[in-house]
Amino acid sequence: MDKNLYVALTIAIGSAAPAISIGWLSSRALTAIGRNPEAVGVIQTAMILAIAFCEAIAIYALVVALIIKFV
After folding, report:
1. Cα within 13 Å of Cα(6), Cβ side
2. What homologous superfamily is domain 3-70 in, according to CATH?
3. Whole-model pTM above 0.85?
4. pLDDT truncated to tens, each residue of the chain (71 aa)?
């Protein structure tokens, strides 16, 4: 198979999973804020931290795709 197919699959899967996770995290955080508005600061901080970890997974997928492409 062509290297470009592997690169495309790596990027597609490596960016779809974090995107789904970020959407789910945001949805659950907004639900939690709606139920307990006094805890906005704690919930928002935890949400932003979790989203940053999800984005790191997408960046790792990009690095792997670049390694596949150029090595």
Report:
1. 12
2. F1F0 ATP synthase subunit C (1.20.20.10)
3. no
4. 789 999 999 999 999 999 999 999 999 999 999 999 999 999 999 999 999 999 999 999 999 999 999 98
